[in-house]
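Figure 3 (text version): structure tokens given as input.
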């Protein structure tokens, strides 16, 4: 299945800091660390980016919180957990990246809020929709079995010719752990797979299987086409086209920043701490913007965007299907 396009947002890990207090945060033989000292230290390190992210999340929640509910976030989390091999594997990946389940859900929530904002504030012209439709290729559903050597792939093809079940062979042989358990199935559109895989898959009719192994940088594939729908009319495909255009917007940090900036300028933001007074300058236009990454840019959803979030891709098993989806 298509790989999640995962961001690396600053974690909203329950940071609650009180100012103007002598309460002790920690102590040792060297003395005490007060909340005031801790607050000042945090301001110097992550204060600006953290405040920026918290303000953006608060404003977007006020506008779109009815759409991005706990149930929606939990569903997204469960989808990603399943796609990465189950609870144990997903927990290990999150741990490698410094996430807990709660902090990762916070990141999912922010991504979905940004997605809701971009959808709400974006309109497409008839010309844009027509141009996208002209290039549009409907998603297909195929299945594949990935193995390391050509001899094994040929043996699998022989077993299929003798009547073996494709899904069972995928579970037994495929090294693509992300798809093996569901029979090797993956849904994709043009340009999302490595060229060799895509060319071989699109050459098949419904129900057909490749008669020779398909070599890619990831090994050798045996591919079966499950469903290759025909392209509908412009009217029939308009909603899908708009979704794809939104996905493109969500992959562009400049487009996201433009949307968020417009929303922030209407939010009457006041920052009382003078040391953090510039936190929202990139969005409020109070000074010339730079190319410095902001928390919202780091939190940008990708395309797929309906099912993507924030664990580092390098931590995941790299299969041909997973890697090619990002192309």
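Below: residues designed for each position.
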């Amino acid at each position: 299945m298509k790989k999640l396009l995962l961001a690396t947002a600053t974690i909203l890990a329950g940071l609650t800091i009180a100012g103007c207090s002598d309460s002790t945060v920690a102590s040792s033989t060297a003395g005490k660390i007060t909340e005031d000292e801790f607050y000042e230290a945090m301001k110097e390190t992550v204060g600006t980016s953290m405040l920026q992210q918290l303000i953006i999340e608060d404003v977007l929640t006020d506008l779109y919180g009815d759409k991005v509910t706990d149930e929606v976030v939990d569903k997204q989390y469960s989808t990603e957990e399943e796609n990465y091999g189950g609870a144990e594997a997903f927990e290990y990946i999150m741990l490698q990246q410094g996430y807990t389940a709660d902090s990762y859900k916070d990141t999912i929530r922010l991504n979905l809020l940004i997605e809701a904002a971009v959808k709400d504030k974006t309109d497409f012209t008839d010309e844009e929709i027509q141009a996208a439709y002209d290039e549009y290729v409907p998603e297909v559903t195929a299945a594949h079995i990935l193995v390391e050597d050509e001899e094994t792939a040929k043996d699998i093809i022989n077993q299929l010719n003798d009547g073996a079940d494709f899904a069972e062979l995928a579970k037994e042989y495929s090294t693509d752990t992300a798809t093996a358990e569901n029979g090797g199935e993956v849904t994709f559109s043009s340009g999302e797979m490595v060229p060799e895989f895509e060319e071989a898959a699109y050459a098949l009719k419904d129900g057909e299987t490749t008669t020779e192994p398909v070599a890619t940088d990831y090994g050798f594939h045996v591919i079966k086409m499950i469903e290759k729908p025909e392209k509908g009319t412009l009217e029939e495909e308009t909603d899908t086209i708009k979704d794809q255009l939104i996905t493109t917007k969500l992959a562009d940090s400049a487009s996201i920043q433009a949307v968020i900036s417009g929303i922030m300028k209407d939010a009457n933001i006041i920052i009382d701490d003078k040391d953090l007074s510039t936190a929202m300058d990139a969005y409020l236009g109070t000074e010339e913007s730079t190319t410095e990454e902001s928390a919202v840019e780091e939190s940008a959803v990708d395309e797929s965007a309906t099912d993507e979030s924030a664990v580092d891709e390098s931590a995941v098993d790299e299969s041909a299907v997973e890697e090619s989806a990002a192309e």
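Strands lie at 24-28, 31-34, 140-147, 185-188, 214-216, 219-227.
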